[in-house]
Amino acid sequence: MLRLSLLAIIIMVVWIEILPFFIPKKPKKNYSDEKLREIALSRGMHPIPKEYDKFLKLLDSKDNLITKEKVALGKKLYFDTLLSKDRTISCNSCHMLSQNPRDNKQFLEDIMHPKDKTDCMVCHIKDESGSDRLSTAIGVGGVTAHNHLNTPTILNSALAKYRMWDGSLRTSQAVIAPMIHGKYTMDLSTKELQKRLKNTPFYREEFKKVFVNGITFKNVVKALDVYQKTLLTRSSYDRFLDGNNSAMSEQAKRGFRDFIQLGCKGCHTGITVGGQTIQKFPTRNYNHIIDVTGIFSREHIGRETAAFDFNFKQYQRFPFENKGGFLGKNNQQLFRVPILRNVTKTSPYFHNGSVFDLREAVHIMGKYQLSMELSETQIDEIVAFLKSLDGEVVEYKELK
Amino acid sequence: MKILYVNLDILFMFISGILLMNYFSIEWSYFRVIEFLHVFGSIVVSILFVLPFLYKHIYESMIKMGHNSISGLLFGFIFILLLISGTYLFLIGNKGGDIYGIVSYNVHLYSSFFLLLFLMLHLKKFFFSRTFTILASTIILFLPSDAYSHSKLLTNIVFADGAKSHHSIDWTNSVTCKECHPKIFKQWADSNHRHLADSNPYYMVLENLAGMDRGKKFRQWCMGCHNPSAVSMNQERTTHFMDDNNMPEPLFTKGSQNLINEYKVHPYRLEQGVSCITCHRIVDARPMGNSSYALDLTKRKKYLYEDAYSDTKVWVSHKLINANPKVHKQGYMKPLYKKSEYCASCHNEFLPHSGRKVVSTYEQWKKSPYNNPDKPKEHKDCIDCHMTQLKNGKFSPLHGSSTLGGENKKDIKVHYFAGGNYFLAGLKNKENESQSIQLLKTSAKLDVKIDKGVLQVGVKNVGAGHKLPTGAADFRELWLDITVKDKNQKIIFSSGKLDKKGDIEKNSIIFNKVFGDKDGNPVGLFFWRYEKLLKDTRIPAGKRVVERFSLQKAVKYPLHVDVKLNFRIYPQWVTNIVKAAYPQLTDSPVITIAHLEKTFD
After folding, report:
1. Residue B60, C-beta contacts closer than 8 angstroms, at least 6 positions apart
2. CB A258 within 8 A of CB A311
3. Which of A20, A311, B342, B476 meets the CB 3.0–4.6 Å disulfide criterion with B469?
């Protein structure tokens, strides 16, 4: 009996392995550049506009018009540590940007005179990532974020449909107040903030210029919101979508094709390449004794072989350490799909920042969301595509 | 029918084993699969079919029916021999170090022919009638079917010939080498080759500085030697480990524990720095410098599952290597590795934009008396000093085996990579530090005399096959620390002391070189701006330099002269800058290479 059952297992394994050879192979479609662009645009993957009027059309709202002065005021507030209880952190502490990204001397200045810069910032301030490079954010008094949540990038977030890891907030304006009041972030009361601003002559004057009713908490939020909206990045991917075929490398284009064909774009979609939906993670958790994952061909549609692995680990919710125990919306492992623009600069990855390597993150996404063991070449191509999403903040002349 | 199956099983084991012989030298991609099939097929087949059958057969024919067949007995005896030797080869392997392994290997190989002979004799009446069926089935079994060529393709996706791109899987993590080469791993784990990139604070700051000063792409110049794996993966910069919100302390972690932990959790992550595979897969090297070596990562012969991440598969791969490690040895050890030209591919360094030489350690060696191929006794290559163990200040080659259970060697080339940088290695491991300091102390000798009120201090480079100091000699400090006391113990002359900030006081005698930019100003950290050589006081191999100091005229003899030749790997001002990004960094200690005290009447 034992012999027979062992034999049966062997036959089953062999069957699973050789099955793909019997299925007729259909070659994968190889899109031309034009076709690739057409498909992307038809699925809502639009470029970030470089024209100011298109930008206004996308983001301007009647109750908080974007004006040059308001943006300047918002920027001033963004980099001001006055917004935190102990005056140690600003918005910029976690959503790291440099005030003058085009200024090349900044690093030399920082390293020779490391006054109030933290050690990480010395090297990373030039990244322009709009995020800290830490697993979890550090708020006033050095407290780490509740639930060990990782800081998502602020870049392009104004265009997302959902905010926060559980997608609980819907508008870019709604995010600001909780950040200022939050115990784990800046921990500053409305009253204290107004008092501080009123005591600063610069803000007294500026607010008077920009807003009719001067310094109010609502106006602070409005100014910050407008500045946040200007933090859009354009990359080679956008230039490709605009019609420049040579903007993206061949490898990145293949990665883009994989991104569409393998199903990544199902969730990471829209102008922001993510941030538009709430999804379950992971869809498969591989907690069985034997894991079988498909390895998919690059040339043909369908599975090539199956990867077997024995799994003697304990039950785990995530394919990485469950730091902080955060379980997403309604504790159902529902998460806002992260924005993939500038993803190469925003490591570590996932909601608790447990994964430090982009290639590993891509591998995890393939295996646990799409049930496929991506080959190293596929990962390479996808990473090349993700690199093409790296951009620089658009500087609209009208706001200069 | 049953007999036929058992015969087929035995034939399967025999043929799959014979194909592994050197005589056939079959293509590697087949070899690795057949090796696996031979080992595990034999286990499955023996346990499930052959052994139960033999037991039943012997019981029935010899005990119940009282037959007595000599060929059967001989067959049984050889089968047991094969079983024992096979088990030994599988569980312990033929690593070269123990005689049992070698005996097992030969017994296993040659007695299999006898086994087949006795099987034929035993089966005389069955044999000829069945021959055809058996042969036909084996031919079918071993036809290179689609399945094989496909498994080749699977691996070939990653290890494509003339690979255009590499993957982290090509860069076999050094942690995987640890299992069988624990001693060598331990030596390397705290050495400077391991800590050339992500875990070296000085390097990280300088690479960032270079990228900032000359543009993103310039980082590749640094990375060519410091971080080849990242270069091959088209990575733009060196990245460092993180442990949650903190940078783990690569500075103080002994035995590369962080690398081991990281590998356990994130096996896909690329290992940075100079790993085992970097040096041991170099197939060609030119002494030009600036990473002038040829790497062949994809075309190496890998045993089945050598790259696997799962514990079971790794265990299997170790068994497969140990049973027949010849190919493994050939793949990772080449005669080239003993030559100085090999090291020169990185230990020669010039600016890509101007061709100016920044580091020319190999060229210094070439001109030195140590480069003497005609007289093998006087000729010394890089590894003769930098990879030979030191004990009590003397070279004493390490005896033993470099591999667990491997053959005994008289001179294991140790992987401490002892050299100038005692500091960063010493933060992790005192043994590595001591090897470097011992080596440094063999390099120079002092002599002193006073002639007509002039103190003459001679420094001779007696041990180094290159200038003293070499390497990035603009960031090295080798200087004379002199104290002269008169009869009343009053200090009448002093030079080369450290001031409060930790810098060497002005007007001291420092042996180094100083680069200047095009306007003739010292370049500081920006050594890639080098245009003019402002100063070069390094001591060439075998040469002696004399420094003269005039003493005050009216001094009370006897004079007590105390001269130290001090060395510090990084000047204090460089450490101060690096500390801005790495606050946990400590200051580099000062090492005394040579010390001389003398009294003059």
Report:
1. none
2. no
3. B476
Q: Which residues of A touch B202 (CB under 8 A)?
A: none
| Residue of chain A minimizing CA distance to B246 | A134
Which residue has tokens 């008396």?
B369
Residues B393 and B273 in one domain: yes
Indicate the DSSP class of residue A56. H
Contacts of B244 in chain A (CB under 8 A): 135-136, 323, 353
The answer for residues whose C-beta is within 8 angstroms of residue A61's C-beta and 6 or more apart is none
As for the ipTM of the complex, it is: 0.77
Closest-CA residue of B relative to A148 is: B244
Report pTM.
0.80
So what CATH class is A52-95+130-232?
A: mainly alpha
pLDDT digits (tens, 9 = 90+) for B282-314: 888 878 888 888 888 888 888 888 877 778 888
Q: Show the beta-strand stretches assigned E in A199-346.
A: 233-235, 278-280, 290-296, 300-301, 303-310, 334-336
Which of A144, A360, A364, A383 has the highest number of chain B CBs within 10 A, making it the mutation to test binding with B? A360
Domain ranges of chain A: 26-48+235-393, 52-95+130-232
Domain A26-48+235-393 superfamily per CATH? Cytochrome c-like domain (1.10.760.10)
What are the residues whose beta carbons fall under 8 Å from the beta carbon of B260, sequence distance 6 or more?
Answer: B175, B178
Q: Looking at chain A from residue 201 to 240, which residues have their Cβ under 8 Å from any Cβ of chain B?
A: none
Burial class (CB in 10 A: 0-12, 13-18, 19+), B450: middle
B-side interface with A, Cβ within 8 Å? 44, 48-49, 146-147, 150, 154, 157-158, 165, 167-169, 204-205, 208-209, 212-213, 239, 241-242, 244-245, 247, 265-266, 268-270, 310, 312, 577, 580-583
| % helix, strand, coil for chain A, step of 5 | 45, 10, 45
* Separation between Cα atoms, residue B186 and residue B429, nearest integer Å: 10
List pLDDT tens digits, range A67-98: 999 999 999 999 998 999 988 888 988 898 88
